[in-house]
UniProtKB/TrEMBL annotation:
Region of interest called Disordered, as start-end residue ranges on this chain: 248-267
Protein name: S9 family peptidase
Length: 267
């Protein structure tokens, strides 16, 4: 864990017994205290999800396994999102011939699945009311999944907001705090579009990245909806969407050289 202002190291989340790595995906709830991360429980074992909660002084709890996912074979590239009340987890997983999105109750492990023959899901975000999930589907576009609809066909339960034919290099998506709009990345541009899709998207800012950076931008939006976080190599970049200004900070840790692939980050 790092300070979002200066990148200073704050605390290490202890790995559960048998987990050899925490370098997979993670997500944060809007309360800025509840996180879910993934790790292996042992050699040649599937990934598991673990919930971590921060105390009032900011110290992390021991990771608690999310029940009900022991038999779900998870890979390293999955997208996850925590519900606003931090009680449910949504995640995307590849399946033979398509992709699946699941919503699981963090206490009981009860799960519901939707699937489609699409290639990949690169972004997930909960609506503030917890009744819908925005998603980015490769080759299809940006849409909103209605959790109240019956059935398991993902695209049948999802309303298209913006087709991918109008956009390039889609990656992340997030809801504005009032639920009226979606914030998403198209290439290195950060865009905003009304959730009903009736207006054209507008550019909030364009981030500058080195030539060796990915063509897509993965970001995490804070609970206020004003600040966006992305990581390149071992530096964090905090973008103020109100004025487009960017603050850069090194992610300082004694356990890593600061070189190599970019870590995953969420707030």
């Amino acid at each position: 864990m790092h300070d979002a202002i200066n990148g200073e190291f704050l605390a290490a989340i202890p790995l559960p017994p048998g987990v050899r790595s925490s370098s997979q995906v993670l997500a944060a709830a809007p309360d800025n205290r509840t996180f879910v991360l993934s790790g292996w429980t042992g050699p040649n074992s599937p990934l598991r999800f673990f919930r971590v909660h921060l105390a009032e002084d900011g110290s992390p709890s021991d990771p608690i396994p999310v029940p009900g996912l022991e038999s779900d074979a998870l890979g390293a590239g999955h997208i996850i999102a925590l519900s606003p009340d931090a009680t449910r987890l949504a995640y995307a997983a590849s399946i033979p011939g398509g992709v699946k999105i699941s919503v699981v109750d963090l206490s009981t492990g009860q799960r519901r699945d939707w699937s489609t023959r699409a290639s990949v899901v690169t972004g997930l975000a909960w609506a503030p009311d917890g009744q819908r999930i925005a998603l980015v589907v490769g080759g299809w576009g940006i849409g909103v999944l209605d959790l109240g609809l019956q059935g398991s066909d993902l695209l049948a339960a999802t309303r298209l907001v913006k087709p991918s034919s109008d956009l390039s290099f889609l990656e992340s998506v997030a809801y504005a705090p009032d639920g009226s709009a979606l914030i998403y990345s198209a290439g290195h541009a950060v865009m905003r579009i009304p959730v009903d899709g009736r207006e054209e998207p507008r550019v909030l800012t364009r981030v500058s990245l080195p030539a060796d950076a990915s063509l897509t931008l993965r970001f995490s939006l804070d609970g206020t909806g004003r600040y966006l976080l992305y990581v390149h190599r071992w530096r964090g970049f905090r973008v103020d969407l109100a004025d487009g200004s960017t603050t850069s900070m090194p992610l300082k840790t004694d356990e890593h050289s600061g070189e190599g692939d970019s870590p995953n980050a969420a707030w």
